[in-house]
Design brief:
mainly alpha; 75% helix; 220 residues
Length: 220
């Protein structure tokens, strides 16, 4: 093989590794951004919401998302056993991001549906003001379906954060366990990948053994 061809062969894994590193960092940033995004959304009024609900729902949504972030990160060691194994639990966790994505879309649908029902009920009571005026002036005790609105509003952000978290934690654990993309594409588990690495190191005499892997008959 010519020298340029070998250089091209070495360049492809380098470009792939650079893209993988960028993608993992991108997902990790978005996991944190998703936890704080209720604050600017509430401040800029990007989602129609009653003014008396905007303040505490923004606080509750951000607080819940950050607590979820801390909780998932605290169980990352247990998740590593599940995520990179050949088990039903691993398959279940793999589809959870799509499940949470569906729940996010359902929460969006039910929030806007409930908001329309709430506004329609207020108008049936004789309120003839424009929608913006109703949202800004309605008292918290007079809001129809206030609980359903709160639950569906929180669900939009909490389920979206859960989907981002599972993706980001998986990428973090893949780096921590030194699992490359090719190993995962071959369907290797974390244990199989480590075993293959040890066999490769033991078969190569130029690679020194660590104290834990040094043969019993080695030099003292």
């Amino acid at each position: 093989m010519s020298r340029p061809a070998r250089a091209g062969t070495r360049g492809n894994p380098t470009r792939f590794a650079a893209f993988a590193k960028f993608f993992k960092g991108y997902m990790s940033v978005w996991a944190i951004a998703a936890a704080s995004i209720p604050i600017p959304i509430g401040s800029w009024k990007l989602i129609p919401i009653y003014a008396h609900q905007r303040g505490f729902l923004t606080v509750y949504a951000s607080l819940t998302c950050f607590l979820l972030l801390a909780a998932v990160f605290s169980i990352r060691h247990r998740l590593s056993v599940i995520l990179f194994s050949r088990s039903r639990a691993s398959a279940l966790v793999a589809i959870l991001p799509f499940f949470f994505l569906a729940l996010t879309l359902i929460s969006i649908f039910f929030y806007h549906l409930t908001l329309q029902r709430s506004l329609a009920e207020l108008r049936s009571l004789g309120v003839v003001s424009p929608t913006r005026v109703i949202l800004d002036s309605a008292d918290v005790s007079d809001i129809p379906y206030a609980l359903a609105l709160s639950i569906s509003y929180l669900g939009i952000f909490v389920f979206a954060e859960a989907a981002f978290l599972l993706t980001a934690v998986r990428e973090y654990l893949q780096d921590a366990l030194h699992l490359d993309e090719l190993a995962l594409l071959r369907g290797e588990t974390a244990v199989e990948h480590e075993t293959r690495g040890r066999r490769a190191r033991s078969a190569d005499p130029s690679v020194p053994h660590s104290s834990a892997e040094r043969p019993a008959g080695g030099s003292r």
